Predict the structure.
Amino acid sequence: MGFSIGDIVAVYGRKAHIRYIGQLPPNPFNKKHNASQTGFGVEFSSRKLGENDGSVDGKRYFNCKPGMGLFVKENRAQAYDVKECSATQLQAAWRSYRARQAFQDAAAFNFWNELDAFEEKDALVNNRDVGTPTLNTIKKQIHEQNMVDAFEETGPERVSSSHLAVPGADGSRGFAPPRGRRRSSTRRSVGRNSVDASSISAENIPDDYTGPRVKWPITREFCLDLIDHYRDNPDVPLPRKYALELIMAVADHYRETMKGAVVEVEIPKKSGSRLVLVGDTHGQLNDVLWIFYKFGPPSPTNVYLFNGDIADRGRYAVEIFMMLFAFKLQCPSSVVINRGNHESADMNEVYGFAQEVRQKYGGFMYQKFQEVFHLLPLCVVMEKRVFVVHGGLCRKDNITLHHIDRLHRQRPCPASPHSFEDTLMFDLLWSDPQHESGRGWSTRGADCIAFGPDITDAFLTKNNLEVCIRSHQVPTNLRGFEPVHDGRCVTLFSASNYCGTTGNYGGVIIFEANLSFEIQEYMAPSLAEIQMLHSETCAATQKVFLQTRIKDLEMQAKRQHRRTAAARMNEQILEKICKLICEKKTDLWWCFFNMGAESGRVKPAQWREACSNVLGQNFPWVYLMKRLHVVEEDGYVYYNEFLNRYRVEFRPPKCKHLNWRRECIARVFESIMSADLSLKETLMLFDRNCDGTVSFREFNELITELDVGLSEPQVRILMRLITASPAFNAAAGSIDVAEFLGRFRVVYSHVINDDKRNVPWLQRALHCIGKAILADKAEAANRHYEQQRQDGNLGPETNARRRSSAVRAVALFQKFKDYNEGGDGYLSYADFVTGIKRLTIDEEELGFALTDEHLYKVAEAVDTTGSKRINYLEFLQAFHVVDSNSNNSAAEELWGQICTAIFQHKSSIRRALHQFDPDMTGKVDSEDFRSALVAVNTVLSRTEAPLTEEQIDQLVNTMDLDNDGMVEYEEFLDSFTPVDTFFLQPENEDEPSKANGPQNGKVETREGEDPSQADVDIDSNSQRFTISSDFSSSA
């Protein structure tokens, strides 16, 4: 052995003394170790690095302090040397650090991937359940409107029955005029059909454009110049005129040459020929340029096959398409493009390609891209042996290539797999492989399937194929490829460091003419580094240097991505979780509340269970519970406070439209207060013991039946807020209605004279007067509109608008106007007193009789100019209802629900608005804007409708800032942002940002606007915020 009892040795780089030599004790965790073995029992000199105190299973071998003893084999003990021990400890520390880092990176990626799949599932579900039905509703409305126009312009005798046929549920419904007011022909034409192919073709090339110019036929020189142009000037797009020529020429080529959905490709037989198969690139231009740089550009002997998902996520998908289209037109056989699930309008609206094209070229060009997408093949068969498809195989058995080839592919991807044909197309674009045999549901959900090895074998055998190559997802091993199903199914992914986050390698497969192949992996450098490399290696004599530089750049890129990708991934994880919780707040609250947690708190295990059930079972909730700081010092999670952290904020540029928020919240509170009397009267039916409380269920039903101007989701928000308020008795499960209603106070928002400001009776009087005004608005509006309806000036469809706070104020203004003899918009004190006395004021609540003397003093108080007259319309609109609760949670939560609803369905709203705005100018007629919102409401039904009709009207009224009847919807829809207020930290508390609105309490006003009526940014938008996102630091 070489050592004796008491010798000093090094064990795992640590100093230890030998205390025992002989047969080692049995190891219950390693049966092989139970065989008779000799070794040492050692005692470490410092720190508890051992496992015992010299005894095992009751048998003592030597004596030492607990945790200081360890049994090791003979070869684990080395002669003690300080330098050797230090080196061993450093190596062990480094290996331990790298292992922890690798584990954290892998765990973070798996979590990020699950969240990404969850988001994609939500996009699919939203498109299936909301987007597509809304589009169908809008298209039907437009069709009906066009029929009305044709009827009016040509007369009934000129309109054929075929023109009047409107497709309905039974396919036979005839003409029916649309509901709602008609738009003028002038407005209808604004922004419509203003851009077409001929107008773009007539555009002049900008004088400052120095890039390649299209000349027909397309030459190889142009294609190579285009690569150089995008490498050196990636942010200078090809002029729109040229881009349209390429797109339309490619579309014509596909129409002429592509008859089926399957393309058969043969690798050129010329010596040195090859085919480079590329997976998802997702707009990452640096990856495509790097591939071309390493393996050469497309040519007759260097064929490229791109397996879909070129669009979305990255910033440069347009540039990638332009390069591929150019090579396709120059040499059609040199480039083959498969269709991916992101070559689809529903995904493009969510993941960025639609915005990219509109920003660079406009809406007409986006439509042209969609036409090309619909023409792309769904799969490729190489040399009759290799099946290349973007997603995977189908849920139907015995599918042949003939079935696939006969699919009707020239259309959008089906929203859901209903018919046989839809199912095949959907699965080819969306399915994933799984390790288990048979078929199951993919983690993407929403009708997406996963197929096992037996399904792969059956399909390949049925069609005399050897292997299936697909893309569609980042390999779980973070490599550029991942073989499954015994190598018969291979996932290929070419976007390295996907989304700048995952740190994965990209990969391509290079096939020779005999189908021998090699897989090349890479980490693409940045565009700037590719530019630099190109300038360094132009000379042909530097080939050796070139290969060395390529390897160096890829290693450098890998190191850089390793440092930055983790931080970006952690930040995106927090953003995705924030978005998820914002959208599911009501479901989470319901789950918490029904766990018997009426007290407003749950145990950590209950919190994890609720989040797992509502948000996702595959998420690491134990870890997230710590990362999100949800457990308080007493060991509980206070779920109302937790949910209140998350909200969708409305951050319009230059603080536009903020008066919509003020109007919405004011109307919600007015609705609650106006229901005060009805509530008290109705509660008598439920309050049998006359203690002023009712059960939670009864109150919920009562609020719903009274129709207080809230949508069903907003009623659920109100119920959640009640449980978090003192009005809710958790033990009894009952609500003190008086206390809840007492939170809401009417305040007079305008200035009153200083000498009257702190007079108690005056404050109470203004409160009661305001309450009476708000209550009387509805009654006055009813009379006002009823008279107009009888006069034939108003249709019955406008009844829903009567609740608009501004409209009701104008209606009540008519009541005061009777007492304005001068008719100049002002009231004398006497007329003011007469008008107030006609209101029904609750003097019992006021506490004293309101005499003429009191009312004259009120008039003096609000007449701050001393002019002895009052602007009565301004006075009527100066009363607002507020939540006296200090944190104003009701206002924030109800407003947050409205913002969340629009944010959650903004993709469907945007696609609906594009039907009215085919050029995608970002503007539509205000009535079209309203029609899109109403269509979404209708599709979601009454129980899930995000907005009430009144709230839609309020939004439409406030969106038309220029009073030209047009609404800038793109700017509006992009103004909603999910935030977690727990992580909001001002970058510089002493220096607010100037980019987000008025500073230092100043109010921005538009020209000709009264400063007292200007929109004040009452949010926390005046400062920039950053999210603390060191996700791995707390692990």
The mean pLDDT is 77.
